[in-house]
Amino acid sequence: MTDAAATSAKDQKLKEAYFTASQGQLIWQRFKKNKSALIGAWVLVILILSGLFAPFLTPYDATIAGRDKEYLNGAPQIPHFCDENGCSLRPFVYTQERTRSMATNFRWVTETKTGLEDRRYLEFFSEGMPYKLFGMNFSTHLFGVDKGMIHIFGTDSTGKDIYSRTLTAINTSLAVGTIGVMIAFVMALVIGGVAGYYGGWIDSTLQMITDTVRTIPSIPLFMALAAFVPDEWSAEMRFFFISLVLGMINWPTLARRIRTHLLSERNQEYVLAAQLCGASAKHIIRRHLLPSFTSYIIVDLVISFPYMVLSETALSFIGLGLKDPVNSLGVMLQNVTSADVLLNYQWYFIPVIFFIVLVLAFVFVGDGLRDAADPYSDSKK
């Protein structure tokens, strides 16, 4: 077989694979070509796993104040391999002492490098405080030090480890966003599906409700809800309440898209055939109409996820959402609002970087999925 014939046969196989591929396979092939979306997906997976396994990846409990009472508002401790005393194969941090500046009356941290005895060597898979992970009890942490404590992101004013708080906060914010998205998803499927399939006065009534929810201003609503929430509510009750509120006000957009699609699809031949066969409306919507644009629903959910995280962060940031001792990105962002932090404790801004990266990863993945949701767009050009 000549080279031309081999190339032609290869092209023919590629064409056959393209036209016989499933919708999911076509979307995946197009998604892989989007480099920014692929990088965003990897970053998102890393952040999600970091949040899920935060108790193992972090050396200390993120909820206990005063964990290191001798190191309040402490600067990040960067591991070293070498100093004036020589090099070591094991990374280490220095024992720190706190002195006060007479010029500003602020506390400053000074590294002591007087001898090898001041080194604190890192230990991997070290034993520490017990914790629960997926319902099971563990006490092994990814890293620790042979004596004292280590704070790679520094500590806050109560002595909490910022690294431990950051990973735990990512998990909390993602959990709030997931619950909110699921609530909004279920409501959008039910309301949009019923309105689009039946039409008529049912559609008009449901659309009036949808438009009413969309026109409610968010900030006054949140302030009213904050006044409604009792102060004696536990952190768990506040968590589920915020998730419920976010889900209840974010369903109209997806519901309208589902309604529009069903209005255009309900008179298709395959729907009429199912009706003639005696299929119920519930069966037709669930088994025939909704699966016809499942990819678009998934894309919409992914795109709406960062807005849920942003909403939770904004609520907690202005004091209307989660509060200490719960660790969320919004709660941690409250700590960066003072001039004292800006001038003297810049490491408080480290969780802000994680928050920006998390939102950008969701945005890139959502854009990539939206572009890939139409697998045949290349053939239309």
Q: Your description of this structure?
A:
This protein has 381 residues and is α+β, with helices and mostly antiparallel strands. The chain folds into two domains: 77-150, no CATH class; 165-376, Orthogonal Bundle (MetI-like fold), CATH 1.10.3720.10. The chain is built from 16 helices and six strands. It has helices at 3-20, 23-32, 35-52, 54-57, 162-198, 200-215, 218-228, 235-249, 252-265, 269-276, 281-289, 294-317, 329-333, 339-344, 350-372, 377-380, and strands at residues 80-83, 86-94, 96-100, 107-111, 119-133, 136-145. A four-stranded antiparallel beta sheet has the order 1-2-5-6. A hairpin with a 2-residue loop joins strand 5 (119-133) and strand 6 (136-145). Helix 2 (23-32) packs across helix 15 (350-372), helix 3 (35-52) crosses helix 15 and helix 5 runs parallel beside helix 9 (252-265). The chain starts with a helix and ends with a helix.
How would the blueprint of this fold be written?
Layout: H1 3-20, H2 23-32, H3 35-52, H4 54-57, E1 80-83, E2 86-94, E3 96-100, E4 107-111, E5 119-133, E6 136-145, H5 162-198, H6 200-215, H7 218-228, H8 235-249, H9 252-265, H10 269-276, H11 281-289, H12 294-317, H13 329-333, H14 339-344, H15 350-372, H16 377-380
Helix pairs in contact: 2-15, 3-5, 3-15, 5-6, 5-8, 5-9, 5-12, 5-15, 6-9, 10-11, 12-15
